[in-house]
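Input (structure):
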């Protein structure tokens, strides 16, 4: 039986839906709208609902800086037309990060080349080895951006929901 018109969405309820668009820490902006559709509760008291959310914190990955991407929920609209102000947290979603192995290998090779040039100027063959180690550390520290792909199943735990009056 779907959510009755007078029922409340209680704290602790887990809602599962599908994020319609891809968002990533490299290009997302604070305030960017996020839509989660086909939302249902685990007990199916809520089915076919929509969660309206937004990006509330984002930081692109950079040298020594880990990527951050946070989505905050705003509203739950049920199939029957009821609307709730929704304070929830995403507790499950597929989050992809690109492997850093290519960057690390590239950094090591670039470092080795630079190290060899420096080593030859100093009259030693150790430059390549030192350069390779330095390149690896630099590339290893280059953090990767995160992406939540389109059509990803998302779980939102309700912290608080307040039914809004219909007009």
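Output (sequence):
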């Amino acid at each position: 039986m779907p959510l009755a018109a007078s029922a409340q969405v209680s704290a602790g309820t887990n809602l599962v839906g599908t994020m319609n668009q891809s968002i990533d820490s490299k290009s997302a902006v604070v305030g960017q709208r996020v839509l989660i559709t086909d939302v249902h509760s685990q007990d199916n008291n809520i089915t076919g609902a929509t969660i309206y959310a937004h990006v509330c914190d984002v930081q692109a990955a950079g040298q020594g800086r880990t990527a951050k991407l946070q989505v905050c929920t705003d509203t739950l609209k049920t199939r029957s037309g009821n609307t709730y102000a929704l304070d929830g947290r995403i507790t499950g979603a597929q989050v992809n990060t690109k492997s850093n192995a290519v960057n690390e290998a590239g950094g090591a090779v670039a470092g080795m080349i630079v190290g060899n040039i420096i080593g030859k100027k100093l009259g030693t063959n150790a430059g390549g080895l030192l350069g390779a180690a330095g390149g690896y550390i630099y590339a290893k520290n280059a953090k990767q951006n995160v992406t939540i792909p389109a059509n990803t199943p998302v779980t939102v735990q309700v912290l608080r929901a307040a039914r809004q009056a219909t007009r």
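Notes: The CA atoms of residues 44 and 82 lie 16 Å apart. Confidence is low (pLDDT under 50) at residues 1-6, 100-121, 124-141.
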